[in-house]
Amino acid sequence: MPVKKETTRKSTAKKVAPTAKRTKKPDLKAFLEEVEKKAYELYEKRIESGVSSDEISDWFQAEKEIKEKYKL
User: Fold this and answer.
1) pLDDT category, 25, cuts 50, 70, 90?
2) Which of 2, 43, 45, 61 is the most exposed place for a label (fewest CB within 10 A)?
3) What are phi and psi of 52, to 5 degrees?
4) Rounded distance between C-alpha atoms, residue 12 and residue 14, angstroms
5) Do 35 and 62 contact (CB within 8 A), yes or no?
6) Spatial separation of the C-alpha atoms in residues 49 and 41, rounded to whole Å
7) Where are the domains of the chain?
8) What does the alpha-carbon distance between residue 61 and residue 42 come to, in Å, rounded to a whole number?
9) In the chain, what is the greatest distance between 2 CA atoms, to the nearest angstrom?
10) Tell me, what DSSP letter sits at residue 51?
11) 25 near 72, Cβ under 8 Å?
């Protein structure tokens, strides 16, 4: 009678390198507050420098920067 080989299952979980930094992700309220603060800073800087743009662009730029910060 043939002998069956035992098969092992490989884990599908992602392994994180031990040197990789884990950044705590904010909850939605904290994220939006941080984006709002950054957007206002960008707005003030834009007004001082006289660059023409709008608040929506400030918000999107702020959102992009905060997402990069948390690696989202």
Assistant:
1) confident
2) 2
3) -85, 135
4) 6
5) yes
6) 12
7) 28-69
8) 8
9) 86
10) -
11) yes
Asked if 58 contacts 46 with a C-beta cutoff of 8 angstroms, the reply is: yes
Is the separation of the CB atoms in 62 and 38 below 8 Å? Answer: yes
- Tracing tokens 């690696």 back to the chain, one arrives at 71
Whose structure tokens read 């092992």? Answer: 8
- In the numeric block, the tokens 């009678």 are attached to 1
Which of 6, 59, 1, 18 is CA-nearest to residue 35?
59
pLDDT tens digit string along 28-62?
999 999 999 999 999 999 999 998 889 999 999 99
Q: What is the structure's pLDDT at 38?
A: 98
What does the pLDDT read at residue 26? Answer: 85
Q: Give the Cα separation of 30 and 61 in Å (integer).
A: 17
Residue 31 contacts residue 65 (beta carbons within 8 Å): no
